[in-house]
Amino acid sequence: MSGHSKWSTIKRKKGAQDARRSKIFAKLIREITIAARLGGSDPDANSRLRQAIATAKVENMPADNIKRAISKAEGGEGGEDFIETVYEGYGAGGAAILIDALTDNKNRTTAEVRHVFSKHDASLGSANCVAWLFDRKGYILVEKDAVDENKLMEVAIEAGAEDIRDSDDIWEVLSEPEDFDALVKAFEDENIKTVEAKIAKIPQNTNNLNKDEAGKLMSLLEDLEDLDDVQNVWSNFDVEE
């Protein structure tokens, strides 16, 4: 199981996703607005915007919210002062951590990220210290009780899935980024409910942690995700349930 899949599973069981729904929407709106500002408001001609909208729909963001975010960009508002930045480091047990951020004040964001790492006795590293351990992939999670295995396999493979992994109570479907849109649409057309869908950073290998190390790492990941400027947090950990 990839680190992100494990982390997503744990958050679902804790109900953490629902508790953070407004924060998740805020991050998605920021991504949609910036994607539209940079590449235009037509999803058919802007793959980043198309992928952001697909992710927002999976998170059940109202269509009006998506339209307003795009309209804001069309009107010349939002996104113009934001820059994309990546932070890398190590958590408990040597787990690699990769952070995607969108910020209008890099000094502020760097200070906040550094503070969280310090608070959890983790190490903020230099550029590219762990990024090479991750691959960029289309990433979809489907709960096992939501679909028959044979149907999932048939639909996913036909739509361009690269790999389908058995991860406890979910299926983890991976693709090349350019095949992500087709996979999301195929699942929608077949009424296969997905619990997460995004372009993700998937670890090439996982780092097995003991219970204490996993607890420390999860607290760190939660605090990082709570930062307003942090869009996504990736790790390569694994732990027994």
Folded structure, characterized:
The longest helix is centred in the N-terminal third of the chain and has 19 residues. The chain is 45% helix and 24% strand. α3 packs parallel to α5. The strands form three sheets. It has a four-stranded antiparallel β-sheet. It has three domains: 72 residues, Arc Repressor Mutant, subunit A, CATH 1.10.10.200; 79 residues, YebC, transcriptional regulation domain (Alpha-Beta Plaits, 2-Layer Sandwich); 71 residues, Alpha-Beta Plaits (2-Layer Sandwich), CATH 3.30.70.980. The protein has 241 residues and is an alpha+beta fold. The model has no long low-confidence stretch (mean pLDDT 88). β5 and β6 form a beta hairpin.
Give the SSE order as H and E letters.
HHHHHEEHEEHEEHEEHEE
Number of domains: 3
**Largest sheet geometry:** 4 strands, antiparallel
How much of the residues is beta strand, in percent? 15-25%
Helix segment count? 9
Per CATH, the architecture of the largest domain is 2-Layer Sandwich
The rounded distance between the terminal residues' Cα atoms is: 12 Å
- Helix-strand category: alpha+beta
Please estimate the helix content: 40-55%
Strands side by side in the biggest sheet = 3-1-2-9
Give the beta-strand count.
10
- CATH superfamily of the largest domain, called what? YebC, transcriptional regulation domain
Shape: globular
CATH class of the largest domain: Alpha Beta
What is the radius of gyration computed over CA atoms, rounded to a whole number of angstroms?
18 Å
- In the CATH hierarchy, the third-tier topology of the largest domain is known as Alpha-Beta Plaits
Low-confidence segments, given as residue ranges, are: none
Mean pLDDT: 88
